[in-house]
């Protein structure tokens, strides 16, 4: 099949997204509005009949003092990744982005490679010989994933190296944790929790924790807890206006694209979290909590409420987003993996992010710069 690629309108892009069961929230037109330091463009692939058969949101980051930019398609583009002629999809994209001044292209194919059941992850954590999730035999393998990876290598794409020492990639996570919801009732989902999770949900209910939906004005309460969480967990918090921009952009595109939840107990907000939804996919996006009164389990309560609401919205999966692939007991992120898998989540490995240098000198210089930050 020959593909013709050209920029498309937001309306065309949104109609394409709405017609699909699952598209990453990072591949919706509104996500470009969340990133003011990047220029955004919606790209469309058209078949011989002129029908829109693929779409992608590309973010363009200009280099200071140079008329060149980095092109990034987070968790995209949304094309036929099973196509044997993948070159016909990606080569027009590379040619277009080169004309737009891109010196390097980064993308994240939404292609699943392997899955591990909650029980398999639990067993791996308990195995002293297991160091990384990727080294453990998966519960499921997607047969076409390695073929896609091989096609990309032959075309000159190279998988991005993970950044840091915690198993997370420098861009979007390669490993995530997902709770399957399709065809399940709330009772069936809760039955998939481990004993600790079920006990904590009941404890929160008995203690009188109330989880409510918030609006834009409640982002300030969320942010206070978020800053406290950042200090406790030693990460650099995003500014408040980032979340306000997210709220404005995403809810303008769809009122249910972004939701805010707050867990109250005795008149105090103890935890807050955001949930994003596109089609049948719901994501836990950002979470925040105070160290006070943790014994009433507000975090479990808020997650359970979001899962129930995701079910009501018709979601087939509740996505906890990134997890570490380390199984080292001394790693501080292992507790986060235990928490997410405890909700009956499966560990899912995607193909990861891939780079294509359109200008090898600038691409290498950028790599050196990022490695020294």
TrEMBL record:
InterPro entries: Acyl_CoA_acyltransferase, FEMABX, PG_Glycine_Bridge_Synth. One of its GO terms (molecular function) is aminoacyltransferase activity. GO terms for biological process: cell wall organization; peptidoglycan biosynthetic process; regulation of cell shape. Keywords: Acyltransferase, Cell shape, Cell wall biogenesis/degradation, Peptidoglycan synthesis, Transferase. Belongs to the FemABX family. This is Peptidoglycan bridge formation protein FemAB.
